[in-house]
Amino acid sequence: MSAQLTGHHPDQAPEHAPEHAADNRQRPPLVVVITLLTALLTVLLIAFAWPAARSEPRDVPLAVVGPAPAVAQVEKGLEQAMPGGFELSAVPDRAAAVQKIEDREVYGAIVLDPQQPEVLTASAGGPAVAQIITQLATRLSPETPAKVTDVVPLPADDPRGAGLAAGALPLVLGGIIAAALLTQLVRSGAKRMVGAVTFAITGGLALAAVLQFWLGSFEGSYLSNSGVIALSIAAVSLTLLGLEWLLGRAGLALGAAMMMLLGNPLSGLTSAPEMLPSGWGALGQLLPPGAAGTALRSVSFFDGAGAAGPLVVLSCWLVAGLTLCGLGALRSQRVVHPRHEAKPVTV
């Protein structure tokens, strides 16, 4: 009687036993798990430590004011001191050099005045580059120390630019976390997209408020700074949402790894794109974190000069994310979900 009530033959094993056996067979060996974790840790170290360890000037644009023989002598001296480190361009006078700095065409300038040589920097454009250019002042004329002028300085509340450099990680994590939570908590694809855009706006307003009004790391228009941050978060989150829509969790993981392991360390926010290994700095500027960092510097400190290119990059990522979401929606409509109707049980 008990066998009939339970629906199992007495000699049969419980139904959950084969499931546990299958789970045990599907789990990889411990040595495989340890190997994968070690590989992941190594990749993380390389991604974050390698650009910093190989940071040095590479074709950093500088302007030089002075007679042609003196300019040639300075160029030769810089090439001997730092081979391939600087790319010099001659300008007629100091005012032209200042204008090129403010337009973000060069990082600094050297004014070869026999009476008082001068080095012009822009710490807001890159503190690491400004420090290197300042060190050059002692080499120009050991007898007559060069005057150092910071044309576009960083704010007094954040003279090292630490706030902007540290802001790269929240920009990336904001987009990743938004995409991950929306895919888990919201079923509708359209609502996910609306949620991502809404979060990008609120997140941009919040981060810009902290960096500008509390930490004092930003200057310029608060709404402009907020807009750049919001555009960056939206570009990342919508791209990851689209990848997850098309490829599932693998797409989300792939996009998150690209933004975290490539976009963040190659952003150049802690130094400058020209300070990164050759080619990698240019690649970083084609990813949302690097484009957002350059756009933020331009909008906050240079009245928008040099922001057009980075904003175009962020807009392209935003359009790509919307396109991926659209393709995901079309794919979902084509998938036929069979309906399983419960069959009536004859008693």
TrEMBL record:
Any transmembrane segments, and where? 30-53, 162-182, 194-215, 221-243, 250-270, 307-330
The biased composition feature labelled Basic and acidic residues covers 8-24
This protein's record includes keyword Transmembrane = yes
For the keyword Cell inner membrane, the answer is: no
Where would one find the signal peptide in this protein? none
Q: Where is this region: Disordered?
A: 1-24
What keywords sit in the KW lines? Membrane, Transmembrane, Transmembrane helix
Q: Please, which domain of life does this record's source organism belong to?
A: Bacteria
Q: What is this protein called?
A: ABC transporter permease
